[in-house]
Amino acid sequence: MIVDYSDQIEEMEKYNVQDVLLLEKVYYKLLPWINNHPNVAIYKGSNVCPTCGGTSLQRRGWAYTGLGKYQRFQCNTCGAWHRSQKSEKLEEHLTKDKNG
Questions:
Q1: What is the reported pLDDT for 98?
Q2: I need a labelling partner for 88 at 20 to 30 A (CA). Which of 10, 17, 33, 68 fits?
Q3: DSSP sequence for 12-62
């Protein structure tokens, strides 16, 4: 006996298409908070958001570490925060601040 599932398959296909479209929207909303997301900048080059690949970045101050300071950026596309890979040495800025 052969069972015809074509109606059920068609219904599931409609559901799956809608599910994929909805999940894509959810993914982009959650993207700024996904810490282990692959770095998109590796594929798109420098001066792009490593989270979404957007090119609209806004400078937002500095991030300080024991080794230097890094320019911080916020992506205007997805809202994710990141910092530059190149640091500026703290001692250079401390001497500039003291000397005016």
A1: 52
A2: 33
A3: HHHHHHHHHHHHHHHHHHHGGG-TT---THHHH-SSS-TTT--S-EEEEEE
CB 54 within 8 A of CB 76: yes
Cα dihedral across residues 7, 13, 19, 21: positive or negative: negative
- Report the alpha-carbon distance of residue 28 to residue 33 in Å, rounded: 10
74 vs 21: CA distance, rounded Å: 26
Give tens-digit pLDDT for 34-83. Answer: 888 888 888 877 788 888 888 999 999 999 988 889 999 999 988 889 88
**Phi, psi (degrees; rounded to nearest 5) at 73:** -130, 150
pTM listed for this prediction: 0.58
Q: How far apart are CA 96 and CA 16, in angstroms?
A: 60
The CA distances from residue 28 to 23, 25, 80, in Å, are 9, 5, 11
What phi and psi, each to the nearest 5 degrees, are found at residue 58? -120, 130
